[in-house]
Amino acid sequence: MTRRITWTLLVLTSVLLVLAVVPLAALVTARERVAHRDSQRAATRVIAAAAEEHLSDHRPATAMRQELAAAARAGDCAAVYDASARLVAATPCTAAQGEEADELVADVLAGHEPEPPENEGRLLAAEPAGEVRHPAGAVVLARSAAPLDARIAAIWGWAAAIGTAGLAASVLLSVRLAGWVSRPVSALDASARRLGEGALDERADVGPGPPEVRRLAATFNTMAARTEALVHGHRAVIADVSHQLRTPLAALRLRLDVLAAGAEGDTATELAAAQEEIARLSRLVDGLLEVARAEQATPRPTAVRLDEVVAERVAAWSPVAQERGVRLTAESESALTVALGAGHLEQILDNLIANAVDAVPADGSVCVDTRVAGGSVRVLVRDDGPGMTAEAKAVAFRRFGNPQARGTGLGLAIVHRLVTVNGGTARLADTPGGGLTVVLDLPPWTERGHERVPRRDLYRF
After folding, report:
1. Is the pLDDT of residue 262 over 60?
2. What is the pTM of this model?
3. Which long-range contacts (CB under 8 A, 24 or more apart) does 215-221 make?
4. Over the stretch 113-169, which tens digit does the pLDDT of each residue have?
5. Residue 201: which residues within 8 A CB-CB, separation 6 or more?
6. What is the dihedral of CA 350, 352, 354, 357, to 10 degrees?
7. CB atoms within 10 A of CB 416
8. Which fold has domain 202-298?
9. Could you tell me the fold of the domain covering 302-448?
10. pLDDT mean over 379-394
11. Beta-bridge partner residues of 304
């Protein structure tokens, strides 16, 4: 945002400076040229008036020579010609003589308005001595263009300096303005990211920035406070439910155990069935509480070594798999690190391995495979069990989605919630040759993607 605001203001300022300064400098330059030309023609006419008195009235050439001397002292070169284009008098310099001067004299004596040329850094002007239609002679005055060029260069130099100063001021102003607008937005974005990562006590700084950003920060803080209260309330409910349900279930199981110890016959059978139902109810309550905890999870991503956790969980479940005659193996492409909440990967793998070991018959196999897939890290839990129908796979990630599940039917729901809350995806696929494959795409850990931005910086414009 800072870069876009800065470049937008710079481009706008540059366009305005070009549209304002360049035409103004061009206008002043044109006026300087006209003023220089008018001044030169005025000096030429003064000499022409003195030359007319000498050529038409046959008065002494004293006044004409005085004007030529004054022109010479001013740095000009002048020459006076009679009606036959013959040189009558001139200044010591000869810049007003030559082919170009002769052409101007011919035009003036013919009663035409000459077009003064500009050559080799000098300007020529020609005026008739006497009447325009029947002049008694002509005067040619050559003046150096160096002073005019210097003034024009100074004009454009000042224009460039003004444009540069304006552009520099625009750069400073745009950087300050962009910082005033974007820094509070960046701080608010960092606060929102930390809130999304699980820091429920995160709040944005409402002080700096434009009014709209301050209102947005205040609204964000209100939302964060309500979210924190809601999550803490739900966690309190889960804790209360866990305590209130588990305690009577444990007491009921204990009483049934006491009764079953001395029961015989049909009574013992019924009590054993009741014990199984109590155990099933306990597992169901534990599963529902796990789902609720997963749904309330607001994880802070941490760097988790995937290969190490997979090896650890496979080693932990290997005795169970061996007891049931199932081969449990792990394959890893390389040392991979994923961004997950603390303990989530262990919980995900435990649920998936437990489901696979339960589903696979004796002499079956379960394999946990990890690899890089595009921009994510892929985990595949493959088994060669009976698999699932298309209808069962469509609802498997829902609570009690699979009616054919041997357990509570909550394991895949917990896995799906933990994967998605960490920014990953989960899906089910068929294993080649028969069986089920759970495909998890997990976000990789990148240091740059998990930088922490200072929270309480104050920005003032």
Report:
1. yes
2. 0.47
3. 216/188, 217/184, 217/188, 220/188, 220/191, 220/192
4. 777 666 657 888 888 988 888 888 999 999 888 888 888 899 999 888 888 888 888
5. 228
6. -140
7. 24
8. Helix Hairpins (1.10.287)
9. Heat Shock Protein 90 (3.30.565)
10. 87
11. 338
